[in-house]
Hints:
- There is one protein chain.
- By secondary structure, the protein is α/β, with parallel strands linked by helices.
- The protein is built from 14 helices and 15 strands.
- The strands form two sheets. Strands 1, 2, 3, 4, 5, 6, 7, 8 and 9 form a nine-stranded mixed β-sheet that branches. A six-stranded mixed β-sheet has the order 14-13-10-11-12-15, sandwiched between helices.
- A hairpin with a 2-residue loop joins strand 2 (41-45) and strand 3.
- The relative contact order is 0.12.
Amino acid sequence: MDRVVLVRYGELGLKGKNRPFFEQKLMDHMRRATAELGRPWIRKTYGRFFVTFREGQADPGRLDQVIGRLQRVFGIVGLSPAVRVPLDLDAIYRAAERVVTEHLAVLGRRDGEVPFKVRGHRANKQFPHTSMDLNRLVGAYLLRQVPGLKVDVHRPEIEVAVEVREDAAYCYSRDLPGPGGLPVGSSGRALLLLSGGIDSPVAGWMGLKRGLDLDAVHFHSFPFTSERSLEKVEDLCRVLATWSGGVTLHVVHFTEVQRAIQQAGPPELGITLMRRMMVRIAERIARREKLLALVTGESLGQVASQTLESIGVIEAVTALPVLRPLIGLDKAEIVRLAERIGTLDISNRPYEDCCALFVPRHPSTRPRSQAVEAAEAALDVEALVQGAVERTETLRPEPGPPA
């Protein structure tokens, strides 16, 4: 019996003639995610990937590590640690018994009967027993061999899957969730406007889930914002990189731009002017890096700069598409996602970014284009944008836990 991990994917199977492209992307990311764990062999069959371990590597600790890494690979909808055996009914019996015995040990049940069912699938039509035969035969064998089981096809606590394929049979009873979505990079490259807050890292994660390969841009206003605030953003990139393989961070030194806005603009338009400058600078960096869109953490109506009027005035300065993955989510939903993906505690560190520090007491919620453009007439917009781009530093935080 060989230990393998069976990997399922979802919408990739609906891509028609483009399906091989998406499958290859997914395989590349699976190999990248498991490279440090001995480079297990990854094989593709129709609708499935199988991760096979080299001799001596299939210990439970290594198996759990590989599964943990694969649960952060977008495009995977489910994983199952499985046992692979030859196309022989007796071998299938023994594999099913092993799977159930191990599952019972995990459950720790010592009294009462555990309801179970068998779900057979005969993909290999040359195998002499049908899917229904497998359900009946394997179920009867388990009832005879494993004490404490009872059949319940409607509410089983253990569901034993038996997949008969061309080369072998696979038995498993655990179905672990993957993140779903599309493989990173299959939808193109974009630039995430990353603050130190809760929303923008979640927007980045949702962009990754839809197949984007992301760079990030952060606007740093030293000495108004501390080096600790920049460290916070680097740590957010490290977490996002564990889902994507890597995130390049462009740090824009924004102090000169903010000082110019404070001196020239009406206070109530300060946030609008600042965000328009951010979008201009982000577009310049995106075009330099050949990125096709901007991604922001805006949620409609959440703050003054996220009303329809503000969004329209701010977006008017760029010709790039602006993607807003969080536009329909409320704050509680965003916080739950941040907790799930591992960014919430970092975002809650008490180091504010430049947006939080320069919010006026009464910001305009419905800015008009004419008023905003009139305020910008006092600024040398092109010189400020070009200077900020030239002062930009590029970092590559390593994937992993916060430094």
